[in-house]
Design goal:
There is one protein chain. The chain is an alpha+beta fold. The chain is built from 7 helices and 15 strands. The strands form 3 sheets. A 6-stranded antiparallel β-barrel has the order 1-10-13-12-11-14. A 5-stranded antiparallel beta sheet has the order 4-7-9-2-15, with no helix packed on it. A hairpin with a 2-residue loop joins strand 11 and strand 12. It starts with a helix and ends with a strand.
Length: 435
Protein backbone atom coordinates (compact mmCIF):
# COMPACT_ATOMS: atom_id res chain seq x y z
CA UNK A 1 0.00 0.00 0.00
CA UNK A 2 2.94 2.37 0.70
CA UNK A 3 4.37 1.81 -2.77
CA UNK A 4 0.94 2.45 -4.28
CA UNK A 5 0.58 5.71 -2.38
CA UNK A 6 4.08 6.88 -3.29
CA UNK A 7 3.57 6.05 -6.88
CA UNK A 8 0.34 7.93 -6.93
CA UNK A 9 2.08 11.02 -5.46
CA UNK A 10 5.05 10.89 -7.97
CA UNK A 11 7.77 10.11 -5.46
CA UNK A 12 10.41 7.35 -5.68
CA UNK A 13 9.75 4.42 -3.53
CA UNK A 14 13.11 4.49 -1.82
CA UNK A 15 12.65 7.99 -0.53
CA UNK A 16 9.40 7.09 0.95
CA UNK A 17 11.01 4.24 2.79
CA UNK A 18 13.81 6.42 4.11
CA UNK A 19 11.45 9.07 5.22
CA UNK A 20 9.26 6.59 6.85
CA UNK A 21 12.10 4.89 8.73
CA UNK A 22 12.45 6.31 12.19
CA UNK A 23 15.78 7.64 13.43
CA UNK A 24 17.29 6.05 16.43
CA UNK A 25 18.26 8.41 19.18
CA UNK A 26 22.02 8.19 19.92
CA UNK A 27 22.80 6.55 23.18
CA UNK A 28 25.82 7.10 25.38
CA UNK A 29 27.63 4.29 23.67
CA UNK A 30 26.30 4.55 20.12
CA UNK A 31 27.89 2.40 17.46
CA UNK A 32 29.46 4.18 14.52
CA UNK A 33 26.87 4.88 11.79
CA UNK A 34 27.54 3.20 8.49
CA UNK A 35 26.22 4.46 5.25
CA UNK A 36 23.30 2.55 3.83
CA UNK A 37 23.64 0.83 0.55
CA UNK A 38 21.96 2.53 -2.34
CA UNK A 39 18.36 1.37 -2.80
CA UNK A 40 17.48 0.11 -6.18
CA UNK A 41 14.29 1.60 -7.51
CA UNK A 42 11.53 -0.97 -7.82
CA UNK A 43 10.09 -2.04 -10.99
CA UNK A 44 7.49 0.15 -12.47
CA UNK A 45 4.04 -0.80 -11.12
CA UNK A 46 0.92 -0.54 -13.19
CA UNK A 47 -1.28 2.41 -12.47
CA UNK A 48 -3.87 1.81 -9.82
CA UNK A 49 -7.45 1.70 -10.93
CA UNK A 50 -9.38 4.75 -9.90
CA UNK A 51 -11.73 4.24 -6.92
CA UNK A 52 -15.37 4.08 -7.97
CA UNK A 53 -17.87 5.47 -5.46
CA UNK A 54 -21.18 3.47 -5.48
CA UNK A 55 -24.32 5.55 -5.50
CA UNK A 56 -26.65 5.22 -2.43
CA UNK A 57 -29.19 2.39 -2.76
CA UNK A 58 -32.55 3.47 -4.00
CA UNK A 59 -35.48 2.43 -1.76
CA UNK A 60 -37.80 0.05 -3.53
CA UNK A 61 -41.49 0.58 -3.29
CA UNK A 62 -43.34 -2.17 -1.38
CA UNK A 63 -46.92 -2.35 -2.66
CA UNK A 64 -47.54 -5.73 -0.92
CA UNK A 65 -47.19 -4.21 2.52
CA UNK A 66 -49.59 -1.46 1.64
CA UNK A 67 -52.11 -3.96 0.30
CA UNK A 68 -51.90 -6.04 3.47
CA UNK A 69 -52.35 -2.95 5.64
CA UNK A 70 -55.33 -1.82 3.59
CA UNK A 71 -56.84 -5.30 3.77
CA UNK A 72 -56.45 -5.38 7.54
CA UNK A 73 -58.03 -1.96 7.90
CA UNK A 74 -60.90 -2.96 5.64
CA UNK A 75 -61.40 -6.24 7.51
CA UNK A 76 -61.31 -4.50 10.89
CA UNK A 77 -63.81 -1.91 9.75
CA UNK A 78 -66.10 -4.59 8.32
CA UNK A 79 -65.91 -6.66 11.50
CA UNK A 80 -66.52 -3.57 13.63
CA UNK A 81 -69.56 -2.67 11.55
CA UNK A 82 -70.87 -6.24 11.75
CA UNK A 83 -70.25 -6.41 15.52
CA UNK A 84 -71.93 -3.07 16.02
CA UNK A 85 -74.93 -4.15 13.98
CA UNK A 86 -75.17 -7.44 15.93
CA UNK A 87 -74.99 -5.59 19.24
CA UNK A 88 -77.64 -3.08 18.19
CA UNK A 89 -80.05 -5.67 16.83
CA UNK A 90 -79.36 -8.59 19.19
CA UNK A 91 -76.54 -8.23 21.69
CA UNK A 92 -77.97 -5.36 23.70
CA UNK A 93 -81.02 -7.43 24.56
CA UNK A 94 -79.00 -10.25 26.17
CA UNK A 95 -78.03 -10.35 29.85
CA UNK A 96 -75.19 -12.76 30.51
CA UNK A 97 -73.04 -14.01 33.37
CA UNK A 98 -70.42 -16.69 33.85
CA UNK A 99 -71.16 -17.00 37.58
CA UNK A 100 -73.46 -19.95 36.95
CA UNK A 101 -73.28 -23.63 37.78
CA UNK A 102 -75.27 -26.81 37.23
CA UNK A 103 -77.21 -27.92 40.31
CA UNK A 104 -79.45 -30.88 41.22
CA UNK A 105 -81.43 -32.17 44.21
CA UNK A 106 -78.59 -34.24 45.63
CA UNK A 107 -79.68 -36.63 48.39
CA UNK A 108 -77.34 -37.84 51.11
CA UNK A 109 -78.29 -41.41 52.01
CA UNK A 110 -77.77 -42.12 55.71
CA UNK A 111 -78.43 -44.98 58.11
CA UNK A 112 -81.59 -44.86 60.25
CA UNK A 113 -80.54 -47.61 62.68
CA UNK A 114 -77.20 -48.64 64.11
CA UNK A 115 -75.27 -51.80 63.33
CA UNK A 116 -72.52 -53.32 61.23
CA UNK A 117 -72.79 -53.07 57.49
CA UNK A 118 -73.33 -56.49 55.96
CA UNK A 119 -73.01 -55.38 52.32
CA UNK A 120 -72.78 -52.24 50.21
CA UNK A 121 -73.51 -53.53 46.67
CA UNK A 122 -73.03 -50.21 44.85
CA UNK A 123 -70.03 -48.27 43.56
CA UNK A 124 -69.44 -44.66 42.63
CA UNK A 125 -70.90 -43.72 39.28
CA UNK A 126 -73.43 -46.57 39.27
CA UNK A 127 -76.92 -45.76 38.01
CA UNK A 128 -79.69 -47.08 40.26
CA UNK A 129 -83.47 -47.17 40.14
CA UNK A 130 -85.93 -46.31 42.88
CA UNK A 131 -86.07 -49.22 45.32
CA UNK A 132 -82.64 -50.67 44.52
CA UNK A 133 -80.62 -51.82 47.54
CA UNK A 134 -77.86 -49.40 48.52
CA UNK A 135 -76.66 -51.04 51.75
CA UNK A 136 -77.61 -53.82 54.19
CA UNK A 137 -77.11 -53.75 57.97
CA UNK A 138 -76.95 -56.94 60.04
CA UNK A 139 -80.54 -57.56 61.19
CA UNK A 140 -80.17 -60.31 63.83
CA UNK A 141 -80.85 -58.05 66.80
CA UNK A 142 -83.78 -56.41 65.07
CA UNK A 143 -85.38 -59.75 64.22
CA UNK A 144 -85.13 -60.80 67.88
CA UNK A 145 -86.67 -57.50 68.95
CA UNK A 146 -89.54 -58.05 66.54
CA UNK A 147 -90.10 -61.60 67.81
CA UNK A 148 -90.15 -60.40 71.44
CA UNK A 149 -92.67 -57.68 70.60
CA UNK A 150 -94.91 -60.15 68.80
CA UNK A 151 -94.78 -62.58 71.75
CA UNK A 152 -95.78 -59.82 74.18
CA UNK A 153 -98.67 -58.92 71.93
CA UNK A 154 -99.82 -62.55 71.80
CA UNK A 155 -99.72 -62.76 75.61
CA UNK A 156 -101.76 -59.61 75.89
CA UNK A 157 -104.32 -60.94 73.45
CA UNK A 158 -104.71 -64.01 75.68
CA UNK A 159 -105.23 -61.71 78.65
CA UNK A 160 -107.92 -59.85 76.75
CA UNK A 161 -109.66 -63.14 75.94
CA UNK A 162 -109.54 -64.21 79.62
CA UNK A 163 -111.02 -60.92 80.80
CA UNK A 164 -113.77 -61.25 78.22
CA UNK A 165 -114.71 -64.68 79.61
CA UNK A 166 -114.69 -63.31 83.14
CA UNK A 167 -116.96 -60.52 82.05
CA UNK A 168 -119.38 -63.03 80.56
CA UNK A 169 -119.42 -64.97 83.85
CA UNK A 170 -120.01 -61.75 85.77
CA UNK A 171 -122.94 -60.86 83.55
CA UNK A 172 -124.40 -64.32 84.19
CA UNK A 173 -124.03 -63.71 87.93
CA UNK A 174 -125.92 -60.47 87.50
CA UNK A 175 -128.77 -62.37 85.94
CA UNK A 176 -128.62 -64.85 88.82
CA UNK A 177 -128.72 -61.98 91.32
CA UNK A 178 -131.77 -60.55 89.61
CA UNK A 179 -133.48 -63.97 89.91
CA UNK A 180 -132.62 -64.11 93.58
CA UNK A 181 -134.17 -60.71 94.08
CA UNK A 182 -137.35 -61.91 92.40
CA UNK A 183 -137.48 -64.98 94.66
CA UNK A 184 -136.82 -62.92 97.76
CA UNK A 185 -139.54 -60.47 96.82
CA UNK A 186 -141.97 -63.36 96.36
CA UNK A 187 -141.11 -64.64 99.81
CA UNK A 188 -141.50 -61.09 101.10
CA UNK A 189 -145.00 -60.84 99.68
CA UNK A 190 -145.99 -64.21 101.13
CA UNK A 191 -144.53 -63.40 104.54
CA UNK A 192 -146.26 -60.02 104.60
CA UNK A 193 -149.61 -61.61 103.75
CA UNK A 194 -149.13 -64.30 106.38
CA UNK A 195 -148.26 -61.68 108.98
CA UNK A 196 -151.36 -59.65 108.13
CA UNK A 197 -153.57 -62.69 108.39
CA UNK A 198 -152.07 -63.75 111.69
CA UNK A 199 -152.50 -60.24 113.00
CA UNK A 200 -156.22 -60.28 112.15
CA UNK A 201 -156.64 -63.67 113.81
CA UNK A 202 -154.78 -62.47 116.86
CA UNK A 203 -157.20 -59.56 117.20
CA UNK A 204 -160.09 -62.04 117.13
CA UNK A 205 -158.21 -64.26 119.53
CA UNK A 206 -158.49 -67.16 117.12
CA UNK A 207 -154.66 -67.60 116.77
CA UNK A 208 -151.92 -68.10 119.22
CA UNK A 209 -149.60 -65.22 120.02
CA UNK A 210 -146.58 -67.32 119.14
CA UNK A 211 -147.93 -67.82 115.69
CA UNK A 212 -148.16 -64.05 115.23
CA UNK A 213 -144.59 -63.58 116.34
CA UNK A 214 -143.45 -66.27 113.89
CA UNK A 215 -145.24 -64.51 111.05
CA UNK A 216 -143.64 -61.20 112.03
CA UNK A 217 -140.19 -62.80 112.01
CA UNK A 218 -140.79 -64.35 108.59
CA UNK A 219 -141.85 -60.98 107.23
CA UNK A 220 -138.74 -59.23 108.59
CA UNK A 221 -136.51 -62.04 107.30
CA UNK A 222 -138.00 -61.77 103.80
CA UNK A 223 -137.46 -58.02 103.82
CA UNK A 224 -133.82 -58.50 104.76
CA UNK A 225 -133.43 -61.17 102.10
CA UNK A 226 -134.73 -58.77 99.45
CA UNK A 227 -132.30 -56.06 100.54
CA UNK A 228 -129.41 -58.53 100.55
CA UNK A 229 -130.31 -59.73 97.06
CA UNK A 230 -130.46 -56.16 95.80
CA UNK A 231 -127.06 -55.36 97.35
CA UNK A 232 -125.62 -58.52 95.81
CA UNK A 233 -126.96 -57.45 92.42
CA UNK A 234 -125.25 -54.07 92.76
CA UNK A 235 -121.96 -55.82 93.60
CA UNK A 236 -122.33 -58.15 90.62
CA UNK A 237 -122.98 -55.24 88.30
CA UNK A 238 -119.95 -53.41 89.73
CA UNK A 239 -117.85 -56.50 89.08
CA UNK A 240 -118.99 -56.46 85.46
CA UNK A 241 -117.98 -52.79 85.20
CA UNK A 242 -114.56 -53.62 86.68
CA UNK A 243 -114.04 -56.40 84.16
CA UNK A 244 -115.07 -54.12 81.34
CA UNK A 245 -112.56 -51.51 82.54
CA UNK A 246 -109.90 -54.22 82.70
CA UNK A 247 -110.81 -55.23 79.16
CA UNK A 248 -110.39 -51.62 77.97
CA UNK A 249 -107.06 -51.38 79.78
CA UNK A 250 -105.95 -54.62 78.19
CA UNK A 251 -106.98 -53.33 74.76
CA UNK A 252 -104.98 -50.15 75.31
CA UNK A 253 -101.96 -52.16 76.35
CA UNK A 254 -102.45 -54.36 73.31
CA UNK A 255 -102.48 -51.23 71.14
CA UNK A 256 -99.17 -50.15 72.67
CA UNK A 257 -97.75 -53.59 72.00
CA UNK A 258 -98.99 -53.44 68.41
CA UNK A 259 -97.19 -50.11 68.08
CA UNK A 260 -94.06 -51.74 69.51
CA UNK A 261 -94.41 -54.53 66.96
CA UNK A 262 -94.78 -52.00 64.14
CA UNK A 263 -91.75 -50.08 65.41
CA UNK A 264 -89.69 -53.25 65.61
CA UNK A 265 -90.81 -54.25 62.13
CA UNK A 266 -90.00 -50.75 60.87
CA UNK A 267 -86.54 -50.85 62.48
CA UNK A 268 -86.01 -54.19 60.78
CA UNK A 269 -86.95 -52.68 57.44
CA UNK A 270 -84.43 -49.88 58.01
CA UNK A 271 -81.63 -52.44 57.96
CA UNK A 272 -82.00 -52.39 54.17
CA UNK A 273 -81.27 -48.96 52.72
CA UNK A 274 -82.92 -48.44 49.33
CA UNK A 275 -82.72 -45.69 46.74
CA UNK A 276 -85.63 -43.24 47.13
CA UNK A 277 -85.54 -42.27 43.43
CA UNK A 278 -83.62 -42.85 40.20
CA UNK A 279 -80.12 -41.43 40.15
CA UNK A 280 -76.39 -42.04 40.13
CA UNK A 281 -74.35 -43.05 43.18
CA UNK A 282 -71.51 -40.74 44.19
CA UNK A 283 -69.30 -39.91 47.16
CA UNK A 284 -69.54 -43.40 48.64
CA UNK A 285 -68.32 -43.07 52.22
CA UNK A 286 -68.21 -46.57 53.73
CA UNK A 287 -67.76 -50.25 52.97
CA UNK A 288 -69.01 -53.58 54.32
CA UNK A 289 -67.98 -54.35 57.91
CA UNK A 290 -68.04 -50.76 59.12
CA UNK A 291 -70.18 -49.78 62.10
CA UNK A 292 -72.77 -47.10 61.39
CA UNK A 293 -74.91 -45.09 63.79
CA UNK A 294 -78.18 -43.30 63.06
CA UNK A 295 -77.34 -40.48 60.68
CA UNK A 296 -74.07 -41.94 59.42
CA UNK A 297 -73.55 -41.08 55.76
CA UNK A 298 -73.47 -44.01 53.35
CA UNK A 299 -73.37 -42.37 49.92
CA UNK A 300 -74.86 -39.57 47.85
CA UNK A 301 -77.55 -40.05 45.22
CA UNK A 302 -77.61 -37.55 42.34
CA UNK A 303 -80.82 -37.40 40.26
CA UNK A 304 -79.40 -36.19 36.94
CA UNK A 305 -82.91 -35.86 35.54
CA UNK A 306 -83.48 -32.94 37.93
CA UNK A 307 -80.47 -30.97 36.71
CA UNK A 308 -80.91 -27.21 36.53
CA UNK A 309 -78.76 -24.10 36.36
CA UNK A 310 -78.37 -21.54 39.14
CA UNK A 311 -77.03 -18.26 37.75
CA UNK A 312 -75.91 -15.46 40.06
CA UNK A 313 -76.67 -12.20 38.27
CA UNK A 314 -75.64 -8.79 39.48
CA UNK A 315 -78.45 -6.67 40.83
CA UNK A 316 -77.79 -4.18 38.05
CA UNK A 317 -78.58 -6.87 35.45
CA UNK A 318 -82.02 -7.88 36.72
CA UNK A 319 -84.02 -4.93 35.47
CA UNK A 320 -85.11 -6.74 32.31
CA UNK A 321 -85.08 -10.34 33.56
CA UNK A 322 -88.53 -11.96 33.90
CA UNK A 323 -89.80 -15.45 34.59
CA UNK A 324 -90.40 -17.40 31.38
CA UNK A 325 -87.76 -15.69 29.24
CA UNK A 326 -85.57 -17.96 27.08
CA UNK A 327 -82.02 -18.59 28.22
CA UNK A 328 -79.07 -19.76 26.13
CA UNK A 329 -76.82 -22.08 28.14
CA UNK A 330 -73.25 -22.90 27.17
CA UNK A 331 -71.49 -25.51 29.28
CA UNK A 332 -67.72 -25.13 29.51
CA UNK A 333 -67.35 -28.89 29.03
CA UNK A 334 -69.25 -28.71 25.70
CA UNK A 335 -68.70 -25.16 24.42
CA UNK A 336 -70.00 -25.91 20.92
CA UNK A 337 -73.47 -26.93 22.13
CA UNK A 338 -76.15 -24.31 22.72
CA UNK A 339 -78.82 -25.45 25.22
CA UNK A 340 -82.04 -23.48 25.34
CA UNK A 341 -83.57 -23.14 28.82
CA UNK A 342 -86.15 -20.96 30.56
CA UNK A 343 -86.04 -18.61 33.54
CA UNK A 344 -87.92 -20.53 36.24
CA UNK A 345 -87.68 -18.24 39.26
CA UNK A 346 -85.75 -15.48 40.96
CA UNK A 347 -84.50 -15.87 44.50
CA UNK A 348 -86.49 -13.98 47.15
CA UNK A 349 -83.25 -12.51 48.53
CA UNK A 350 -79.62 -12.09 47.62
CA UNK A 351 -77.05 -14.70 48.51
CA UNK A 352 -75.53 -12.62 51.30
CA UNK A 353 -78.85 -12.53 53.19
CA UNK A 354 -78.88 -16.34 53.47
CA UNK A 355 -75.24 -16.56 54.52
CA UNK A 356 -74.18 -17.77 57.95
CA UNK A 357 -73.20 -14.24 59.00
CA UNK A 358 -75.37 -11.80 57.05
CA UNK A 359 -73.96 -8.29 56.71
CA UNK A 360 -75.16 -5.53 59.00
CA UNK A 361 -74.61 -2.13 57.39
CA UNK A 362 -76.19 -0.14 60.22
CA UNK A 363 -72.90 0.26 62.07
CA UNK A 364 -69.39 1.30 61.13
CA UNK A 365 -68.12 2.47 57.76
CA UNK A 366 -70.03 1.48 54.65
CA UNK A 367 -68.66 0.37 51.30
CA UNK A 368 -71.24 -0.35 48.67
CA UNK A 369 -70.81 -3.73 47.02
CA UNK A 370 -72.88 -4.92 44.09
CA UNK A 371 -74.98 -7.84 45.28
CA UNK A 372 -75.85 -10.96 43.30
CA UNK A 373 -79.24 -12.61 43.14
CA UNK A 374 -79.59 -16.31 42.26
CA UNK A 375 -81.78 -16.99 39.22
CA UNK A 376 -82.93 -20.56 38.58
CA UNK A 377 -82.94 -21.69 34.96
CA UNK A 378 -85.02 -24.73 33.99
CA UNK A 379 -83.37 -27.14 31.58
CA UNK A 380 -85.50 -29.16 29.12
CA UNK A 381 -86.27 -32.61 30.46
CA UNK A 382 -84.88 -34.29 27.36
CA UNK A 383 -81.54 -32.54 27.85
CA UNK A 384 -81.46 -33.36 31.56
CA UNK A 385 -82.13 -37.06 30.92
CA UNK A 386 -79.10 -37.26 28.64
CA UNK A 387 -76.95 -37.17 31.76
CA UNK A 388 -74.46 -34.68 30.36
CA UNK A 389 -75.26 -31.94 32.86
CA UNK A 390 -73.50 -32.88 36.07
CA UNK A 391 -73.89 -30.77 39.24
CA UNK A 392 -70.99 -28.40 39.72
CA UNK A 393 -70.14 -27.81 36.06
CA UNK A 394 -69.48 -24.21 35.10
CA UNK A 395 -71.76 -22.66 32.51
CA UNK A 396 -72.33 -19.32 30.82
CA UNK A 397 -75.94 -18.19 30.57
CA UNK A 398 -77.42 -15.50 28.34
CA UNK A 399 -81.00 -14.36 29.01
CA UNK A 400 -82.87 -13.17 25.93
CA UNK A 401 -84.95 -10.16 27.03
CA UNK A 402 -86.32 -9.27 23.59
CA UNK A 403 -90.04 -8.70 23.47
CA UNK A 404 -90.18 -7.31 27.02
CA UNK A 405 -92.70 -4.54 27.55
CA UNK A 406 -90.85 -2.28 29.96
CA UNK A 407 -93.98 -0.22 30.56
CA UNK A 408 -95.61 -3.19 32.31
CA UNK A 409 -94.45 -3.97 35.89
CA UNK A 410 -93.37 -7.50 36.80
CA UNK A 411 -96.19 -9.94 37.48
CA UNK A 412 -96.95 -10.38 41.20
CA UNK A 413 -95.89 -13.60 42.86
CA UNK A 414 -98.89 -15.77 43.72
CA UNK A 415 -98.68 -18.56 46.31
CA UNK A 416 -98.64 -22.08 44.97
CA UNK A 417 -101.99 -23.81 45.64
CA UNK A 418 -100.36 -26.88 47.13
CA UNK A 419 -98.38 -24.70 49.51
CA UNK A 420 -101.23 -22.41 50.59
CA UNK A 421 -103.69 -25.23 51.21
CA UNK A 422 -101.32 -27.70 52.80
CA UNK A 423 -101.23 -28.06 56.55
CA UNK A 424 -97.90 -28.05 58.35
CA UNK A 425 -96.76 -31.57 59.10
CA UNK A 426 -93.67 -33.13 60.58
CA UNK A 427 -92.16 -35.88 58.45
CA UNK A 428 -89.09 -38.04 58.70
CA UNK A 429 -87.19 -39.79 55.93
CA UNK A 430 -84.30 -42.09 55.40
CA UNK A 431 -82.32 -39.56 53.42
CA UNK A 432 -81.20 -35.98 53.84
CA UNK A 433 -81.60 -33.79 50.74
CA UNK A 434 -79.72 -30.73 49.79
CA UNK A 435 -77.87 -29.09 47.08
Amino acid sequence: MAFRDDYAQGRPAGEAVLEAAPTTAPGPRAAPRTEAAPVQPPATLPAAAPLVTEPPPVKRKRPLRRLILLALLAGGGTYGAYAGREWWTTGRFFVSTDDAYVQADISTLAAKVSGYLEAVPVVNGQAVKAGDVIARIEDGDYRLALKAAEDKLATQRSTIARIARQAEAARAQVLQGQAQIDAARADQVRAAADYQRQQQLAQSEFAAKSRLEQARADRDRSDATVKGAEANLIALRANVAVLEAQANEAESLAAELRTAVDRARRDLSFTVLRAPFDGVIGNKATEAGAYVAPGSRIAALVPLQSARVDANFKETQLGRVRVGQPVHIRVDAWPDRDILGTVESLSPASGSVFSLLPPDNATGNFTKIVQRLPVRVRVPEAIAREGLLRPGLSVVVRVDTRGLDESQPPAPIEPHPTVSEAKPTVTSALHITGR
